[in-house]
Design brief:
Elements lengths: L1 E3 L6 E3 L8 H8 L13 E2 L5 E2 L11 H19 L6 H8 L3 H29 L1 H17 L7 H11 L5 H12 L5 H34 L6 H8 L2 H16 L9 H6 L8 H9 L2 H11 L2 H18 L4 H13 L4 H16 L1 H23 L4 H22 L11 H15 L1
Antiparallel strand pairs: 1-2, 3-4
């Protein structure tokens, strides 16, 4: 882990440096046998310098920077993906839409992500998660900013189709941490970044429906219809934030412990990968499709709740848009710890029983989720519905976390493609 200074003959350490000087760093430090890097986390050289620990308060490159950008990027993607959800009742009134037209837009918004997840998975294996994160966030921010131009059911559906591309960032989110952390902690890492990213679904209900929308109504109170003007302008805020986060991820993070994929290939530290071959390998593995179905049964449920919860509470219990949005946000807020708990349980079960432990963990969590969805659907009081929803949400998200504790081991060389296919299963379930 050290070299000798040519001028003085003194030993020096080769530190991990910022991206602008990465080219010089690799030129100076790469050898035929190894790349000399000093990390701030303990790593396992036998697992390609993946970290063996997670330090949540650490933001250093490459491991923890990738960890935090994974969930931050997915969080803002989830935020813009569902920013329109708490505003649907207002849009419905303005455009005189029926329930079927509103639901069609929600289905299209979720369905469009299926294709993106299938597509992005193999390209993670080929070019890495960093560039893809930037491209998708910056692209999805454009239709988000154009929400105010919606004037019909068709334009609403088309808009949500393009905004739905943001949901594809989940693949990069899970791939990135799988690339950075060892098998001992990868279940927890994947679950935490996925859960904190999914938290954007709850935060957007609260921020868009209960904070920004009322604020914009106040700003436009002198307009003929303040509510309509507010929903037409309010989505510009998350769009600008998403575009900015996309750029920050590109310039201040790394694809892997040893650097970015393009530099690693150039210097012979990584073989080039065919995206088509990666997808074929993942798609021909039967275990991929079993997990596809299992993930559809948990993440698909969460997406449905993100789309429908605010409307459900508003109509069933005669609440205002702001009240319904605040209550609906509770489901997403459980991601703060529930998905991480599922990944943690998966890692602990793996330590005791191996892969069988991970599989049993997911089975039990899915069974509890299925029982609670039936209870929630048959709860008639507002208080009871909220309480049941909290526990229902806990098991839904813990099941999601346990799913991606299994994914990195289906076929490691094709992890990106497999993560994409299984992630698409979640959208299919919605």
């Amino acid at each position: 882990m050290s070299e000798t200074d040519v001028a003085t003959g003194a030993p020096v350490s080769c530190k991990y440096v910022m991206a602008p000087t990465l080219n010089n760093f690799l030129d100076d430090c790469i050898s035929d046998d190894d790349i000399f890097i000093e990390y701030s986390l303990d790593v396992d050289p036998d697992q390609d310098d993946r970290a063996t620990e997670i330090k949540l308060c650490n933001f250093s490159r490459p491991h923890m920077r990738a960890f935090h950008f994974s969930w931050i990027g997915f969080f803002i993607a989830f935020f813009i993906w569902f920013a329109i959800a708490p505003l649907l009742s207002e849009i419905q009134d303005t455009l005189d839409l029926d329930k079927k037209e509103v639901w069609t837009s929600s289905i299209v918004g979720v369905g469009g992500t299926i294709f993106m997840r299938f597509l992005l998975g193999p390209f993670c294996d080929k070019i890495g998660p960093r560039v893809l994160f930037t491209l998708v966030l910056c692209f999805a921010s454009i239709p988000t900013a154009c929400t105010g131009f919606v004037n019909s059911a068709t334009s609403l559906a088309v808009l949500r189709l393009f905004i739905g591309t943001a949901g594809g960032t989940f693949v990069m989110c899970q791939y990135w941490t799988s690339r950075m952390f060892t098998k001992q902690v990868v279940g927890t890492a994947n679950a935490l970044v996925g859960g904190w990213g999914n938290l954007g679904g709850g935060v957007t209900q609260l921020v868009m429906g209960s904070a920004l929308f009322p604020l914009f109504k106040e700003i436009f109170k002198n307009e003929p219809d303040p509510a309509e003007t507010a929903w037409r302008w309010v989505s510009v805020v998350p769009a600008v934030v998403a575009f900015g986060i996309g750029l920050v991820i590109f310039f201040y993070s790394d694809d892997a412990p040893k650097g970015n994929y393009n530099e690693m290939k150039k210097n012979g530290a990584m073989a080039d990968v065919s995206a088509a071959a990666s997808f074929r390998t993942g798609a021909l593995n039967l275990n991929t499709w079993f997990l596809f179905i299992q993930y559809a049964c948990c993440f698909g449920v969460e997406l449905t709740m993100n789309n429908a919860a605010a409307l459900y509470f508003k109509e069933k219990f005669s609440l205002t848009t702001e009240e319904a949005a605040a209550i609906a946000s509770i489901f997403g807020w459980m991601n703060l710890f529930a998905r991480g708990a599922g990944g943690f349980l998966s890692d602990k079960a793996n330590a005791r029983m191996g892969m069988r432990g991970r599989l049993w963990t997911q089975t039990i969590l899915l069974a509890c989720e299925g029982a609670l969805v039936l209870v929630f659907a048959n709860t008639g009081s507002l208080t009871g519905a909220i309480v049941v929803m909290v526990f229902f949400s806990l098991f839904v998200q813990a099941a999601e976390g346990s799913s991606y504790g299994i994914v990195p081991y289906v076929d490691p060389p094709a992890t990106g493609a497999i993560a994409g296919i299984i992630g698409a299963g979640g959208n299919t379930g919605a």
